[in-house]
Write a structure and sequence with these properties.
The protein is an all-alpha fold. It is globular and about 50 Å long.
Length: about 210
């Protein structure tokens, strides 16, 4: 996943702490230890059961994805962007945490940057717009894979994606399609990249 590789490139130490923080949330969910999450992670609402709690991970992933998507200098967005390079700022703060610290701290740092950029008081993990980083198809793997620092978060196929109509119109597929089959069709899998005679490499990976 692109967001994972970006954070790993900026700080291996910070990325390892993010992975541990996501593993901690999964462990808490499995143990139904979910009833203090609202305060610990600055959530707008408290999950009331494990089914709801699994969507909190998606909300956290959306926050980290949003930071790297808008990891720009202030002049790009003008007054709207008050934090220069928010992804770098967040992971550097995470890497600078002094041990011992609670496993919630790395995620809370990202949530704080996310809410500052959005002018929001908290992370609305149940809101469709909040989760747009997961439901959009900016890249073939729009969710997160098992080898990413965020762990496996497979596409949710039980309901229609809010972006299905747009994706059908623009790309001829629904919003949850993609992955290896789509990459093979686009000839962007590793064997095609290695065999290519000409490549255009964009800078920064923020495209």
């Amino acid at each position: 996943m692109l967001a994972s590789s970006i954070y790993e490139q900026i700080s291996a130490k910070g990325a390892a702490r993010i992975k541990r923080a996501f593993d901690s949330v999964r462990r808490r969910n499995s143990q139904n230890d979910i009833f203090t999450m609202k305060e610990q992670y600055n959530l707008c609402t408290q999950p009331s059961n494990q089914t709801q709690a699994k969507y909190i991970l998606a909300g956290f992933l959306a926050a980290f994805s949003y930071l790297y998507e808008f990891n720009w200098p202030p002049f790009v967005l003008g007054e709207q962007n008050t934090i220069p390079f928010p992804a770098e700022a967040a992971i550097n703060d995470i890497a600078a945490l002094k041990a011992p610290f609670d496993d919630s701290e790395p995620i809370l740092i990202a949530v704080d940057y996310y809410t500052q950029l959005n002018g929001a008081p908290c992370l609305d993990w149940g809101d469709a717009d909040t989760l747009r980083g997961l439901t959009a198809i900016f890249h073939p793997d729009g969710y997160s894979t098992a080898d990413s620092i965020f762990g496996l978060m497979a596409p949710e196929n039980s309901t229609n994606n809010a972006l299905d109509s747009r994706c059908q119109a623009d790309y001829g597929m629904n919003a949850s399609d993609g992955g290896i089959a789509h990459q093979e069709a686009l000839k962007t899998i590793m064997k095609d990249v290695l065999a290519a005679e000409r490549l255009i490499v964009s800078t920064g990976e923020y495209v």
